[in-house]
Amino acid sequence: MMHSTLPEPWPEAWIAAAATLRAKREAIGLSLDQLAACTRIGRTHLEAIEAGRFDRCGAPIYAIGFTRSIARVLDTAEAPILAAIRAGNAERTPHPPVPATPSPARRLVPDLGFATTGTLLLSLLGASRG
Description:
Blueprint: H1 12-28, H2 32-39, H3 43-50, H4 60-73, H5 79-92, H6 112-129
Helix pairs in contact: 1-5, 4-5
């Protein structure tokens, strides 16, 4: 069986957000090293973000936090970029299957094994005192 060597398709929202951030950084004239110094985000993470690989930031919360910091340094609106990251995460996250049958209702009557054992113990204790 042959495996595809093509990269996995990335969400279009991620690609658009990355292009926006890269274009803004280049328009301002900041290098990646300068942006790394301003944001305290490692260059490898910045390169991943500008490549649209927000999954390489670790958990989605890190990608959102990093991007928020970058947007603030670049003086650009964060809301549309963060929305694009969240949309891309939602697109890539597998949704759990919906159960076909509802779960059974909890029993309101205690298990008779416990009730019988408890009654037997109480009767033995009462008989030993009397």
